[in-house]
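ok so I'm stuck.
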Amino acid sequence: SLLTIAVAAAVMFATVAVNSSSTVAEPFGGADTRITIDGRDRALADRAVSEARTRWGTIDVTAHQAVAVPGTIQRLDMRDQDPHGPYSTNILDLRAGRYPEAPGEVALTDDAADLLAADLHAEVTIGGERSTVVGLVENPADLSDDFVLVAPGALATPDELTVLVDTTNERD
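replied:
not stuck anymore, here's the structure
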């Protein structure tokens, strides 16, 4: 019960979406639960991720930051997501080029590329940083999902974290 209290405290500002049907779970890449954690309090977010890992073992974490598109009032979701994560491999597809591997590299969805007037190998300014487009990506479970993918670990100050878990793997 102490673990339950710790998890509840750690994810106090989180929202959880649970779906049991496999067709509904597909948007979660094979996971059945998506936990959204406020990333602005890094200590709380780290504690929540740690508790999720302790409780369910295999998890997949994606950091998100909303960034302004220069010259517009629009914003894009910048994602720090491991393309080889246990659930990300089903919700992230490389269409051309390669995945970002280092700071200063990004991959774009089609609509993000159109918004930035950029193509593969172009230089773009996103979130105040100059980056090279090394890949074109999509979320095959949601083709209207527009985002900028950065290398894993490249997003230091996320607005929120998404944690994908399979609750059938809950540990005692």
